[in-house]
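Troubleshooting entry. The earlier prediction with zinc ion gave an output that would not parse, so I re-checked the input for stray whitespace and re-submitted. Clean input:
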Amino acid sequence: MKEKPRDLTQQVYDWELSLGLFLWARDIPADKQLTMDECKAIVVDACTLSQSPPPHHVSEERYWTDRYCAWCDHTSRCLGFPEDTRQPAIVLHEVAHLVTRHGHDAVFVEKYIALLDVFNIRPRWELEATAHEYGIL
Ligand SMILES: [Zn+2]
């Protein structure tokens, strides 16, 4: 029987924070956020690069009423980027969920790193080295 990939949610979040891949909502100046069109353009490019069909819909709605996080719904193949989540690394994080159909595990991290590298957010060597330190790769 194949072993279920280990859930690394907290480690992935800690790793992202340590790298400063994105800013928390309260720290983002309004003019530093992407527009929904810019988010959608990154989604389409990242899906094409990943040889994956684009999502059915990219929403600006919240998924959870009490939280502002970006989200990926595998059943409907929809991504969401509510206000304060529209930053390149966050968009790529959700695309990595969409194309791998994985949660926060090593398969997801590998894809996320590949996208962060291709989109020039951070170089692959730095991402891989730090991901190993956090035990997520
Ligand atoms: Zn995630």
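This one parsed fine. Residues 93, 97, 104 surround zinc ion (CB under 6 Å).
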